Amino acid sequence: MRRTLLALTALLAASACSVAPFRAEPPAAASAQTTAAPPARGGGGAGPAMQTPAEEIFQPDVESVIEEPSAPVIPRTPKERPRRPAATLSPASRALVTQAETQRKKGDLPGASVTLDRAMRIEPNNPLLWIEMGRLRMDQRNYPQAESMGRKALAMSVGDDTTQSAAWELIGQSLRARGRNAEAEEALNKSRVAVPR
């Protein structure tokens, strides 16, 4: 019995040497930045969760943010007008225009108007016929209608510099006849600019 008691005492002494003595330390001051969360109960083995200090959260520097370059502004170049050949009269229209000019020279303005109306029924979209009719209206002192016919010819002859020049000249003459000299000069300048080089 005494041997057993001695063996037990020796065993307890040996096991007490392997365990570190318990030390009581005062609790450290709690810090919001480095406090460790208590381990979760029930196991899981994940270990204590650490809180990230506030200054360690990534915040991009305003200067380091790269702005995307804006799209380059490309200036618009005006479209060139398509070039068109000068307007011409068909043989039938040409014969009627020649007849109307003869009637105008003789002072038969109503007869010339009827002849040009016949030509316009043959080629209603020919700007040269509208210019001829406008010149006849000038002889008849119907200046507003002469200007209107000149503008109609202008709209029908885009890209045809020769016809545009004749239309602007008609418009300028009709404006001058009504005393609108500044507008007339502007129209006549456009007539000179439109002349093909």
Structure overview:
The chain has helices at residues 2-18, 91-105, 109-122, 127-139, 143-156, 161-177, 181-194. It is mainly α. It has a domain at 91-194: Tetratricopeptide repeat domain (Serine Threonine Protein Phosphatase 5, Tetratricopeptide repeat). The longest helix has 17 residues, at 2-18. The model is unreliable at 29-37 (pLDDT under 50).
Helix proportion range: 40-55%
Q: Structural class of the helices, strands and pairings? A: mainly alpha
Largest sheet: none
Quaternary organisation of the protein chains:
single chain
Q: On the 0-100 scale, what is the average pLDDT? A: 77
The total strand number stands at 0
N-to-C SSE series?
HHHHHHH
Distance between the termini: 139 Å
What is the CATH topology of the domain at 91-194? Serine Threonine Protein Phosphatase 5, Tetratricopeptide repeat
Radius of gyration: 52 Å
